[in-house]
């Protein structure tokens, strides 16, 4: 069976990356691409690297244009996807690459985003540890999927095995991320101009203000053994008591690379836990995964190793002097962080091979 696909926000970075991966997917037909201010223009004018899709023209992003497809990807700015929820009720599978359907707690949405709250969808990070299982179990047959925030999924994948195994204390998590500016989208912003970022490292959203913080807390709460059997919520909640006791200091830094995330995350070691138990927690979680790789002891990843790949590479250090576990994870923010996760989740939802059209191989040099 061939599935018809529509991609909104197709002139942006996330939409373009979804299209790049889907262009090589044997089970889909990219039928429709939409945009806002760029509607009416050839797709190739905005995504000149997508030569195989040169025949497509950007249409206006409306419910009527998006309806009638088997799969719809919403690669829209935060706060814009929710307005299509009811209009696409008859669409078999809708995947939101924005934040509108990620959070379970109304209070957290109000604090970090604001505007109308929309019901949470199944979270699109298949390898994420959820108690004794994995998030992929919830994605099989799903009809509504919330693709992750790139920083959030990187940190969550980094620490969830330790939380689930009870070897780290999640009340004192510290994470610093070097991130490429493509994660901020394609809109012109002064702080993202080449003259502002070349030769410089620029911190932003410092001091607990970044919008991905509640998403990380929510994911790590689901990993805890105390909530191991908790199913994804179907209705919004006024608070998120499950994430009580999970505290994170989160500092992203824009660095002069077009794409990529290098997240260095640490948390205290629980008393009495051995080095062998710590490493075993991550090895057990990811030893059989195709797209999340724990590197050998003493090895740590570079962002250059994952460019263009749907791979998260992870190095783990046990710092006994500071009594902390340190996890360094590299991902391509546009692939594993966004589009790759969305398409991997689509494959699971449709009953296709999970890795269809996705690669573990990066581009070098």
Key phrases:
365 residues; 24% helix; 10 helices; 16 strands; alpha/beta
Question: What is the distance, rounded to the nearest whole angstrom, between the alpha carbons of the first and last residues?
Answer: 38 Å
Helix-residue proportion: 10-25%
SSE ordering: EHEHEHEEHEEEHEHEHEHEEHEEEH
Q: What is the overall number of helices?
A: 10
Global morphology: globular
Q: How many beta-strand runs?
A: 16
Q: Indicate the mean pLDDT.
A: 93
Radius of gyration from CA coordinates: 20 Å
Q: Flag low-confidence runs.
A: 226-240
Strand content: 15-25%
| Largest beta-sheet characterization | 7 strands, parallel
Structural class: alpha/beta
User: What order do the strands of the largest sheet run in, or round the barrel if closed?
Assistant: 3-2-1-4-5-9-6
Description:
With 365 residues, this protein is of the alpha/beta class. 24% of the residues lie in helices and 21% in strands. Helix 1 crosses helix 10 and helix 6 (150-165) runs parallel beside helix 8. It is globular.
């Amino acid at each position: 069976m061939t599935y018809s696909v529509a991609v909104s926000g197709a002139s942006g970075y996330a939409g373009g990356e979804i299209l790049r991966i889907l262009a090589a997917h044997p089970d889909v037909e990219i039928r429709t691409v939409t945009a806002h201010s760029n509607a009416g223009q050839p797709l190739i004018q905005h995504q000149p690297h997508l030569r195989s899709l040169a025949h497509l023209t950007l249409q206006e992003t409306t419910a009527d244009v998006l309806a009638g497809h088997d799969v719809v990807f919403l690669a829209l700015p935060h706060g814009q996807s929710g307005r299509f929820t009811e209009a696409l009720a008859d669409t078999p599978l809708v995947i939101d690459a924005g934040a509108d359907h990620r959070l379970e707690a109304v209070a957290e949405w109000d604090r970090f985003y604001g505007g109308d709250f929309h019901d949470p969808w199944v979270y699109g990070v298949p390898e994420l540890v959820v108690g004794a299982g994995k998030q992929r179990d919830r994605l099989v047959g799903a009809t509504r999927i919330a693709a992750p925030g790139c920083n959030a999924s990187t940190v969550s994948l980094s620490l969830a095995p330790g939380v689930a195994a009870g070897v780290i204390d999640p009340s004192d998590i510290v994470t610093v991320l070097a991130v490429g500016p493509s994660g901020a989208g394609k809109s012109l912003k002064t702080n993202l101009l080449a003259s502002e970022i070349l030769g410089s490292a620029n911190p932003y959203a410092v001091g607990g203000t970044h919008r991905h913080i509640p998403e990380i807390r929510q994911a790590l709460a689901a990993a805890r053994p105390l909530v191991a059997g908790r199913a994804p919520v179907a209705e919004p909640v006024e608070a998120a008591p499950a994430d009580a006791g999970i505290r994170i200091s989160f500092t992203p830094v824009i660095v002069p690379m077009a794409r990529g995330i290098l997240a260095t995350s640490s948390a205290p070691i629980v008393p009495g836990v051995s080095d062998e138990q710590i490493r075993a927690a991550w090895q057990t979680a990811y030893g059989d995964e195709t797209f999340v790789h724990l590197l050998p002891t003493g090895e740590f990843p570079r962002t250059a190793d994952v460019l263009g790949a749907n791979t998260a590479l992870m190095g783990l250090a046990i710092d006994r002097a500071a009594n902390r576990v340190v996890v360094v994870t590299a991902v391509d923010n546009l692939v594993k962080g966004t589009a790759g996760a969305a398409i991997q989740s689509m494959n699971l939802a449709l009953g296709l091979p999970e890795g269809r059209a996705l690669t573990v191989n990066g581009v070098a040099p």
